Amino acid sequence: MQKIVIVGGGAGGLELATFLGHKLGRKKKAEVILVDRNQTHLWKPLLHEVATGSLDDGVEAVSYRAHARNHGFLFQQGYITGLSRTEKSITLAPITDERGKLLVAERKINYDILVLSIGSKSNDFNTKGVSENCIFLDSPDQALYFQKRMIQLFLKFAEDNNQATNDVAVAEKIELVEPNKINIAIVGAGATGVELSAELYNAAQYLSDYGFGKIDNSCLKVTLIEAGNKILPALSDRIINAAHKELNALGVDVRTNTRIVEATANSLITNEGEEIKADLMVWAAGIRASDVTKQFDGLEINRINQLQVTDTLQTTLDDHIFAIGDCAALLQKDGKPVPPRAQAAHQMATTCGKNILALLENRPLKAFTYYDHGSLVSLSRFSTVGNLMGNLVRGSMTIEGHIAHFIYVSLYRMHQVALHGCFKTALFVLVGRLNRFIRPLMKLH
Question: Which residues form the FAD/NAD(P)-binding domain (predicted)?
Fold first, then answer.
């Protein structure tokens, strides 16, 4: 029996495992194994909502083990550290507990067909101090850490105001960089940075209702920093202007043409020597694949560690190894690379699944073509802006407001349909509606 191993349970990897589990695993035509370092899956575009508590990861996360049981594939938890093309095997790092004690020893998994879908992470461009002092929103754990720090800052803010009112003396305390205000700096004005900026003001308004004192937009200062000359550079000027106007109305200090050259414990230093002080700093500028791709037995990679693939999504040096999603480097017909977006990962998973079936049946493989259906940016409950492209409209159509928000949410529902089917997704929507009345409006723990 053929063994198909998929490394990485992100949007593309999990959708592919589900597809192959239905087509091959359930019918005992092949053994399908999904490998991921985490135990649960969360759609990456939702991480900014997890970071602010607007979304409860415990409700939305998908258990890999439970999903594997229900969809005909196997799951192994682990982090890939090496690859042998001659042995057709991957090596997984040991798993230890929080005290460093060994739980699972280093192990190898053999494969007949391998799919690498390990995603990407933020690119700090080796900027001094960034890795030590900034938070990256690349994983649920990092998003939860941000949320914890954010809650602590608002708790500190509320306590400082009470002490000022009651004139309570404190021997030693942590000081905010600016009295009576929480400062959060975000580097990178792509979709993640813009959406997080708006979501923070949404969180601040809700926290006022949950016992954190009188909090409004004036209590929070978000500085959004972009090295380029505009925010959301992949979108049209009309959308950029609409998003910029909404951010300014919320109170976001948007700084373009500002390059960060160093991060310290409580500040960011610009190339002009300006110090931007902040209680919490997020780095969301650029992406790169993990350095582990350098350990993949000589597979061809580019300057940001992405795996070079052919138009059939097979790696350039090995037809039995595929790569999809953010870790795959493929040029489109116009010479531009396929962008690192969830819709690209979804389309790659679909093509890769069909090509694996074709490979097993000795049929010709089809070339992957990326279809850009547009981009949408959610500014929390305040607004949604973006553009639609593809079969629904001719050329490009700018949308915003309720229609844009509905389509934005629909993108996540499409991902759920790929994983669970239409009926279960409809139930998830119903449960989500009920939770709006049953559960708090934001996660507070």
Answer: 3-349
Helices 191-207/237-250 angle, 10° precision: 30
Indicate the SS3 state at residue 284: coil
The structure tokens 């021997």 sit at 171
With left for phi above 0 and alpha for psi between -120 and 50, is residue 325 left, alpha or beta? left
Run of H or E including 269? strand 267-270
In tens, the pLDDT along 58-93 reads 889 999 999 999 999 999 999 999 999 999 999 999
CB 111 within 8 A of CB 83: no
Q: How far is CA 324 from CA 2, 17, 221, 311, in A?
A: 20, 12, 38, 11
Could you tell me the domains of the chain?
A: 2-122+287-361 (3.50.50.60), 145-160+179-283 (3.50.50.60), 374-437 (no CATH)
Element (H, E) at 275: strand 275-277
Within 10 Å of residue 280's Cβ, how many Cβ atoms?
20
Question: Is 104 in a helix, a strand, or coil?
Answer: strand
d(CA 274, CA 277): 10
d(CA 74, CA 67): 9
CA geometry: angle 173, 278, 243, nearest 5 deg = 140
Give the gyration radius of the chain's Cα atoms: 23
Q: pLDDT tens for residues 409-444? A: 888 899 999 999 999 999 999 998 888 888 777 787
Query: Which tokens is 234 given?
Result: 């992949």
What is the distance between the alpha carbons of residues 243 and 401, in angstroms, rounded to a whole number? 11
- Residues 336-393: tens digit of each pLDDT: 999 998 999 999 999 999 999 999 999 999 999 999 877 778 887 777 776 665 444 4
Please classify residue 13 by burial: count the beta carbons closer than 10 Å to its beta carbon, then call 0-12 exposed, 13-18 middle and 19+ buried. Answer: buried
- How far CA 326 is from CA of 118, 254, 400, in Å, comes to 8, 27, 27
